[in-house]
Design a protein that fits this description.
Blueprint (H helix, E strand, L loop, with lengths): L6 E3 L6 H4 L4 H15 L14 H8 L9 E7 L5 E7 L4 H16 L1
Parallel strand pairs: 1-2
Antiparallel strand pairs: 2-3
Protein name: DHB7 reductase
GO molecular function: 3-beta-hydroxysteroid 3-dehydrogenase (NADP+) activity; 5-alpha-androstane-3-beta,17-beta-diol dehydrogenase (NADP+) activity; estradiol 17-beta-dehydrogenase [NAD(P)+] activity
InterPro entries: 3KSR/17beta-HSD
Length: 109
């Protein structure tokens, strides 16, 4: 039908919503650890607009060239450069096809 679906992950983003998960005093204890970890992992998005990198990148791609079994992650390098990293999802094609067929059945109901 010409419809495409892709999975996008914004990465770990510290926002006002994140701060509501735990009491403020715990965040004050955890933040130094979070910043140390952010230097060694790419999924901690430091730039606020960096979380949209994968969504914008995906929008600019031709859907027929994208892999349906890949999740596209917004990432940030240690120097703050934002980029997209595709990672294979832990789903084989047979399982994905069964899931798709089940969705079609549900749609008919």
């Amino acid at each position: 039908q010409g419809l495409y679906s892709s999975v996008v992950c914004p990465g770990l983003v510290m926002s006002n919503m994140t701060y509501r998960i735990l009491p403020i005093f715990l965040w004050k204890l955890l933040m130094p650890i979070m910043w140390l970890v952010s230097g060694s992992t790419a999924v901690f998005v430091k730039a606020p607009l960096g979380r949209f990198v994968s969504s914008v990148w995906l929008f600019k791609q031709k859907p027929e060239y994208l892999d349906s079994l890949v999740k596209y992650h917004s990432c940030t390098s240690g120097l703050g450069k934002c980029y997209v990293e595709p990672r294979k999802m832990d789903v084989d094609e047979d399982t994905a096809e069964k899931f798709y067929q089940k969705l079609l059945e549900l749609e008919e109901q």
